[in-house]
């Protein structure tokens, strides 16, 4: 009680100049000086936001993670990348609710202390009154000021939850989780030994040839004079060029081998830096290859970076089968450097509704198309549901759901997981990892878990769920995908810099959005721990690049077929000299136009 009295006295003198008449005069003088200083500020919000970002930078360093406030933008015409400052609108800021029920300062962020250069409304009321304050008005002013400084119950609850969560993560040993992890590791090691067969080596060689052809195609695309939509782009004999004349056998073999590899690896993958995280691709092959060419593609060298693809490889796009074939080939060729994370579109019912199955049957015939479709889906059912990077960053496709689960729960989940398995009541938390969405910052008082507009089986989670989940699981950041926004940069930061969205398909569904990937590297050791750096790398939307008259037809090729362009590819054998890659079919493989 004595300590509280001392703190109150210090708060009175240090923050508000005391409760006396002299203190009121001091506040009046300080207010006039502050008002004069504000006149020289061109944009008060930008200044306050910069102060908030400086505070966030300190917090990120304390967490061992730094989110760069610059990004790399690839210039297609100049064939180079340039560094730009991060637009302020992609960093979402949370408002705090004040004691009177109104909105608090949107820039308060993690500190719960206003950093904007503005004086509280209650103090302005004191300045407007008489210099002499009566004891009664003094008590009323004191009460209003104390209420204004008091954070909401939600803030206090979340802070305590974070503290307790960190204590549990650091101090408590979960013997059940330790036992389950040991059993899972033993089982995976046994499966791994079973997968070391001669067939794996032969299929891996085929997969490496696919990667060589894909990177050669990426080089060809990057050298084209104009950038175009993926849906306006076509390569004759594409499947033959990528997967040889025996492309049906290659696709089935790669899918079956990838399935066996995934069976031998954990459902929660573990990755190390440096790495790149891709968001939704949705069958847009040209965007994927341009991202490889612009920022670095897969390499067979042991020192190459790790690639993490965060779900939704197919559906809605025009080159779905080629995309998933390349990704599975990457997995087979680089089993410990490529991680394919399951999304909500790695599901049979979704693929039957949104186009992947139809494309398989159209490109290779009904019978062979069904065979490829089933082989790929047997692989999808074995995909991991998350990836942890350097023990600090969790990558999941959708989100956290209600956030009540732990990473040890995910590690104990058993596969294969079909769509029907995920719909079972005891697996709803797994379904939400694929389907849930965060509630964006901006409005005061948003707290907890809410029903999702996607349906009653999915949920939306607020900032406090992200904070407490990260505290209980020893995480600094959650990366998710699953959502695209009209005209967006392809990346967004929210929930006090603890949640990042990344999306890698440009102009998705006519939305004019950019494609982005996240480059994650080590930024050295600070305060005894490694600091990870997260940097967005962006490929500009074609919609933003092309200026057109409002009366012109829509740019997206799904509606405007007259822009459709062919890319010519050479039939020259790859450097390996394989006969499978040197023989090219003369029949044109026409890609589906959805």
Describe the structure in your own words.
The chain is an alpha/beta fold. It is about 45% helix and about 15% strand. The chain has helices at about 1-15, 20-40, 45-65, 120-130, 135-150, 155-170, 175-195, 200-220, 240-245, 245-265, 285-295, 320-335, 350-355, 355-365, 365-380, 405-410, 420, 430-435, 465-475, 540-545, 580; strands at about 65, 70-75, 80-85, 235, 270, 275-280, 305-310, 340, 385-390, 395, 435-440, 450, 455-460, 475-480, 490-495, 500, 515-525, 530-540, 565. The strands form 4 sheets. Strands 1, 2, 3, 6, 7, 8, 17 and 18 form an 8-stranded mixed beta sheet that branches. A 6-stranded mixed beta sheet has the order 5-9-10-14-16-15. The radius of gyration is 28 Å and the shape is globular.
Brief descriptors of the model:
single chain, 594 residues, alpha/beta, eight-stranded mixed β-sheet, six-stranded mixed β-sheet, 21 helices, 19 strands, 15% strand, globular
- Structural class, by secondary structure, is alpha/beta
Instruction: Tell me the distance between the termini.
Output: 71 Å
pLDDT < 50 runs, ≥5 residues: 1-27, 37-42, 99-135, 554-563, 571-594
What overall form do the CA principal axes indicate? Answer: globular
Q: How many helices does DSSP assign?
A: 21
Largest sheet: 8 strands, mixed
- Fraction of residues in H or I helices: 40-55%
What's the count of strands?
A: 19
Q: How confident overall, as mean pLDDT?
A: 78
Radius of gyration, whole Å: 28 Å
Strand % is 5-15%
């Amino acid at each position: 009680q004595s300590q509280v009295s001392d703190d109150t006295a210090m708060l009175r003198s240090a923050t508000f100049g005391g409760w006396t008449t002299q203190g009121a005069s001091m506040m009046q003088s300080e207010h006039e000086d502050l008002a004069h200083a504000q006149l020289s500020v061109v944009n008060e919000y930008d200044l306050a936001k910069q102060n908030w970002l400086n505070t966030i930078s300190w917090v990120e360093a304390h967490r061992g993670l730094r989110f760069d406030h610059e990004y790399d933008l690839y210039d297609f015409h100049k064939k180079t990348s340039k560094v730009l400052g991060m637009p302020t609108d992609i960093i979402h800021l949370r408002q705090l609710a004040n004691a009177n029920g109104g909105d608090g300062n949107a820039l308060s962020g993690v500190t719960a202390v206003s950093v904007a250069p503005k004086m509280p409304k209650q103090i302005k009321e004191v300045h407007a009154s008489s210099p002499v304050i009566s004891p009664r008005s003094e008590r009323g002013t004191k009460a209003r000021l104390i209420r204004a400084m008091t954070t909401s119950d939600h803030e206090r609850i979340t802070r305590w939850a974070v503290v307790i969560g960190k204590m549990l993560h650091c101090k408590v040993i979960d013997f059940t989780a330790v036992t389950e992890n040991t059993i899972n590791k033993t089982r995976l090691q046994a499966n791994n030994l079973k997968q070391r067969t001669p067939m794996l080596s032969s299929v891996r060689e085929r997969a490496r040839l696919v990667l060589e052809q894909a990177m050669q195609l990426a080089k060809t695309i990057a050298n084209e004079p104009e950038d175009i939509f993926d849906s306006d782009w076509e390569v004759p004999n594409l499947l033959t060029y990528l997967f040889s004349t025996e492309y049906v056998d290659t696709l089935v073999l790669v899918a079956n081998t990838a399935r066996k590899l995934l069976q031998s690896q954990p459902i929660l993958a573990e990755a190390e830096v440096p790495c790149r995280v891709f968001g939704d691709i949705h069958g847009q092959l040209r965007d994927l290859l341009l991202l490889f060419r612009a920022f670095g593609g897969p390499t067979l060298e042991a020192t190459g970076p790790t690639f993490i693809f965060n779900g939704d490889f197919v559906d809605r796009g025009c080159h779905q089968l080629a995309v998933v074939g390349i990704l599975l080939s990457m997995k087979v060729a680089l089993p410990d450097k490529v991680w394919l994370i399951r999304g909500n579109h790695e599901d049979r019912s979704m693929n039957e509704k949104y186009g992947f199955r139809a494309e398989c049957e159209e490109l290779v015939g009904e019978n062979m198309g069904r065979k490829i479709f089933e082989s790929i889906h047997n692989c999808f059912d074995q995909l991991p549901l998350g990836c942890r990077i350097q023990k600090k960053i969790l990558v999941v496709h959708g989100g956290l759901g209600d956030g009540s689960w732990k990473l040890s729960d995910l590690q104990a989940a058993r596969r294969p997981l079909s769509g029907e398995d995920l719909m079972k009541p005891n697996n709803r938390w797994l379904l939400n990892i694929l389907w849930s969405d965060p509630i964006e910052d901006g409005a005061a008082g948003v707290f907890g878990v809410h029903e999702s507009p996607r349906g009653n089986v999915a949920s939306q989670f607020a900032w406090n769920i992200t904070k407490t989940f990260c505290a209980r699981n020893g995480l600094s950041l959650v990366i998710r995908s699953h959502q695209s926004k009209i005209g967006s940069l392809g990346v967004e930061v929210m929930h006090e810099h603890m949640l990042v969205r990344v999306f890698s398909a440009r102009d998705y569904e006519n939305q004019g959005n950019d494609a982005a990937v996240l480059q994650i590297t080590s930024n050295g050791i600070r305060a005894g721990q490694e600091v990870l750096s997260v940097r967005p790398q962006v490929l500009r939307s074609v919609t933003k690049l092309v200026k057109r008259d409002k009366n012109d037809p829509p740019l997206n090729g799904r509606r405007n077929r007259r822009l459709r362009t062919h890319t010519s590819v050479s039939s020259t054998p790859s450097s390996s000299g394989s006969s499978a890659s040197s023989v090219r079919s003369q029949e044109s493989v026409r890609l589906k136009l959805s």
